[in-house]
Amino acid sequence: MNTMRLSLFYGGLLAFAASLASCGTEAPADSAKTQAILDMKRATDHHSYSRPEEAVVTHLNWNAAVDFDTRVITATATYDIETAADAERIIFDCTDLTIQAVRVDGEPVDFELGPAKRFIGQPLTFPVNGESRQVSIDYQSSPEAGALLWVEGDNPFLFTQSQAILARTWVPCQDSPGIRFTYEAHVDVPQGTMALMSATNPTQQSANGHYDFRMDQKIPSYLLALAVGNVEFRSVGEHTGVYAVPELIEAAAYEFAEMEDLLVAAENLYGKYAWERYDLLVLPPAFPFGGMENPRLTFATPTIIAGDRSLVSLVAHELAHSWSGNLVTNATWDDFWLNEGFTVYFEQRIMESVYGRDVSEMLATLSYQGLVDEVDAIMDLNPDDTHLKLHLQNRDPDDGLTAIAYDKGYFFLRRIEEVVGREAFDDFLKTYFATHAFSVMDTDRFIDYLKSVLLNTEELLAAVELDAWIFGPGLPENCPKVSSARIERVDAALAGWEAGTTATDDLPWNEWVYQERYRFLSNLDDATSPERLAELDASWGISSTGNNEVLFAWLEQSIRSQYQPSYARLESFLIEIGRRKFLTPLYKAMVDTDQKAMADAIYAKARPNYHSVSTGTMDELLAWSE
Ligand code: BES
Ligand code: ZN
């Protein structure tokens, strides 16, 4: 690579970008290409080898066959590309892929796979020039591919989890959130299964196991998604529906019946939904997250099926990403708060508009408690990780997945709302999404934009304190106060119960909704005796709750109190469920309380069921070696 030429290129673009930013206008839409290149050059993504300023993908045509026996995807990825006039090569990101052949405009070319680096994998490089238009890569994924989880048994299932940088383990791609492309896919899967993607989806199984997909809106690679399994579809509204295995389809259709209401509420807040349909796929319990905002098709854990629609805020969250994240995308993983903080804010607003302020303030109170706990925990380890703007170079972007991006991000935006007023902030957000739709945003550009259109006086800036929130540690003093009378009553009941002035049978457990029960259990004193947990269980049957959030809080306290009657349930929960948000605190509680041997024994049984995202964290927590 000619570094001189490249730095000139960068320098010119950066100067151009800076001049645009300083006069507070967006780039003129001379050509889509100039805009695309500009967008990408505003922030450097340390988690991708690609060099989009030289050669960048614009469309993917993915032809793939999925083989459950060998756990391999065999595929050809054909990309339309745009190249700079003096381009010499194109670079893709790959992790654990076997590259078989590469063609440029139909002609075979030599390719080079660079050395594998921790976290980011290998660069795949081959020659192109200013006239090159299309490249094809024949390849196979590895049975150990980090994005993929293959579930065996009578009902085989495959799903992907690409965010943050795992798309490159199943598709060679320019795996940077600032690079967007449209896609189509043609996929063969075993008969008796349906294939689904973050694209136009079937609602019936095909007779021959072949499926075709289109995604006509540009998306970044981390939103590429595939699932294969024996699922059924059920419509729940005009633009909304659910997919689930036959055993769960009824329960899923009931649980998520309000999806269309959430969609309407979201559109009323911040503008038209850009992705036509909003469907939800219920994944196997091994799914490592609560939800993933794959465009047109949210992937969700079955642990939110509670039977009473009490956990739908997760759907509100993933739906909100259809604007914050999927329309306006964080430029790099250092800017992750732009995705998640905005999404939590938007989620809360949807919840408030559909279920009322009482409910949304309970959620905000729980979010505040989670944030304070997380700040405490991270401050001891690495205070810089409590800044909204992160520095994840040479680290796993997964390290940024903490309550900071989510809840500090949320309270920061809530602070701005408090200062400028709701109406002005809503106008701002609506315009922000419309102006930056299908493009990327980094923290510095966001600050410039915010200052130019909303916080445009010294008084407003002083009231918000941008720098303290974005570049400073912990929680700024001006953090908004949340208050929920219902949560305060729970706290009072807990204090009474712990002091012995409120009898177990007098707790209003049956009147409490999930948030109140969760608050009670998660705030029990760590040293609560097993006898006292037995009392709670006898009165309120907590062990047999159908709400997995409540069960999780109960199991964690059971470990801390060494309440043995819960241990069988704990083991089956950990073997069945792979959601990292539950696993980490449960295994950690066992380690903290000298029950590491039990943790190891359970983990040995459970580990084969988990996705790489979860084993990555648990292996480290338990110092696991095979
Ligand atoms: N996009 C995230 C999940 C994610 C983030 C996966 C970063 C990989 C890397 C998703 O929207 C999310 O935040 N899920 C949460 C649920 C939410 C209600 C806070 C989860 O899975 O717990
Ligand atoms: Zn999210």
Question: How would you explain this protein's 3D organization?
Answer:
The two termini are about 40 Å apart. The chain has about 625 residues and is of the alpha+beta class. It contains 20 helices and 21 strands. Helix content is about 40%, strand content about 20%.
Give the SSE map:
Layout: H1 3-22, H2 32-41, E1 55-67, E2 72-83, E3 89-94, E4 98-104, E5 107-108, E6 112-113, E7 122-127, E8 134-140, E9 148-151, E10 157-160, E11 180-188, E12 194-197, E13 210-220, E14 226-229, E15 232-235, E16 240-244, H3 246-255, H4 259-270, E17 278-282, E18 291-292, E19 297-300, H5 313-320, E20 328-330, H6 336-355, H7 357-381, H8 403-420, H9 422-435, E21 439-441, H10 443-453, H11 458-464, H12 466-471, H13 485-499, H14 514-522, H15 530-540, H16 548-561, H17 567-576, H18 580-592, H19 596-606, H20 612-621
Helix pairs in contact: 4-5, 4-6, 5-6, 6-7, 6-8, 7-8, 8-9, 13-14, 14-16, 16-18, 17-19, 18-19, 18-20
Structural class: alpha+beta
Mean pLDDT: 94
Ligand inventory reads:
ligand BES, zinc ion
Q: Could you say which overall geometry the principal axes of the C-alpha atoms support?
A: globular
Parts with pLDDT < 50 across at least 5 consecutive residues = 1-30
Q: What helical percentage do the residues reach? A: 40-55%
Strand content: 15-25%
Per DSSP, the total helix count is: 20
Rg value: 25 Å
Gap between N and C termini: 41 Å
Main β-sheet, in a few words? 7 strands, mixed
Number of strands: 21
The largest sheet has its strands arranged as 5-4-8-2-1-11-13
